[in-house]
Amino acid sequence: MSSTTVQAHLTPEQYLALERKAITKSEYLNGHIYAMAGASREHNLITVNISSGLHVQLEDQPCEAYVNDMRLKISPTGLYTYPDVVVVCDEPHFEDTDLDTLLNPIVLVEVLSLSPSTEAYDRGEKFAHYRQLESLQEYILVAQNRVRVEHYLRQGVQWLLTGLSDPDDVLHLTSIGCNLSLREIYAKVKFSASEER
């Protein structure tokens, strides 16, 4: 989360009114708006690869996948944010009649930023918010500068972590019955020699 705030204190309603007119996206927490940075080529390729793979597999299921622009509200904590990929199954629940702020995701995917502070936020504080969602069953972190996927699967009150780093590995999303190979996830992504460490 960026430290750039737009205004000292806003209500959630004021934030949503501003956000729905804004050209750029911002997160919101505790009365403050935080500007979100743009995404790299690699980040965009990975996001599209994941969403495309899920779209095909979810075609005959009562699930929907959204990319980048579906705002998510974590009701227990008040965070509004934009995950890179969101999957919801059965009946999506929205905050209001604008149908642009989802409340009940089952799978969330974040493509990690190259910024160490933003990566730390996605791994730590943001995941702490996400864990408060009763509907959430799986959280996936995807590196953009090397082949590495971290898959968190809810098991009661615990989260089981599986790390994947071989291009032949397959990410199994058990809650939605989908599989994505790392080759699919990283299709057309090229890493420099210095990035692959």
Structure commentary:
It contains five helices and 13 strands. It folds into two domains: 1-36, no CATH class; 39-185, tt1808, chain A (Alpha-Beta Complex), CATH 3.90.1570. The protein is of the alpha+beta class and 197 residues long. The two termini are 25 Å apart. The strands form four sheets. Strands 3-6-8-9-10-11 form a six-stranded mixed sheet, covered by helices on one side. A three-stranded mixed sheet has the order 5-4-7, with no helix packed on it. A two-stranded antiparallel sheet has the order 1-2. The protein is 22% helix and 30% strand.
Which key terms come to mind for this protein?
197 residues, alpha+beta, tt1808, chain A, six-stranded mixed sheet, 13 strands, 22% helix, globular, disordered N terminus
Strand neighbour order, sheet with most strands: 3-6-8-9-10-11
Rg for CA atoms: 16 Å
For the record, what CATH class of the largest domain applies?
Answer: Alpha Beta
Helix content: 10-25%
- Which stretches of 5+ consecutive residues score pLDDT under 50? 2-6
Q: What gap, in angstroms, lies between the N and C termini?
A: 25 Å
Continuous helix count? 5
How many separate domains?
Answer: 2
CATH superfamily name of the largest domain?
tt1808, chain A
Structural class: alpha+beta
- Helix-strand string: HEEHEEEEEEHHEEEEEH
State the CATH architecture of the largest domain: Alpha-Beta Complex
The CATH topology of the largest domain turns out to be tt1808, chain A
Mean pLDDT: 93
Strand count: 13
From the spread of the alpha carbons, the general shape counts as globular
Q: Strand share of the residues?
A: 25-35%
Largest sheet: 6 strands, mixed
Q: What would you call the quaternary organization?
A: single chain
